[in-house]
Amino acid sequence: MRTKPPNKPEATLYTEPSGEDLTREKAPTEPGSRQILAFKQILVPIDFSDCSTAALEYGLALAEKLDAKVILLHVVEPAAYPENYLLTPATLDEANQTLMSAGRERLATLEQKAQGHGRPIETLVRMGRAQSEIPDTAKAIGADLIVLGTHGYSGLKHVLLGGTAERVVRHAPCPVLTVRHAGV
Asked: Domain 40-179 belongs to what topology?
């Protein structure tokens, strides 16, 4: 498999000052000084599976250590029923809105549980295909890291990564940490 080298830095770099707080962003000033990645926004896609919940735990722990903000993203697959031509566009819109509302409610419940970590948490619900919405959202919000479960609620499981995780890793504008749940 061939990979394309990145043409720009994937995260903000700063110099580790000796004896100073590492959370402050600084430009490299001394030649030969050690460079550290500064992750300020961590995107955690959630599909409410056990694997995505494990990824959320990793994301929250990293955010706590790196003084970063966590953004929870739930992607709702549109309700499209091509085999049933009796449904009107209004019925499909209503079904999609119901799915979006249910996703927001479940995400709000998860957000309340995660508030105990003391990090700022934001929630987003998007409509579309997860494999494209996750990288697009990461780019739009300027995420520095994506923490993603390897297998979610999909019918097809790949050998190494779930289909969505594999595509996100390929198309993400930032580094991706994949988390495998012990039960998978």
From this structure: Rossmann fold (3.40.50)
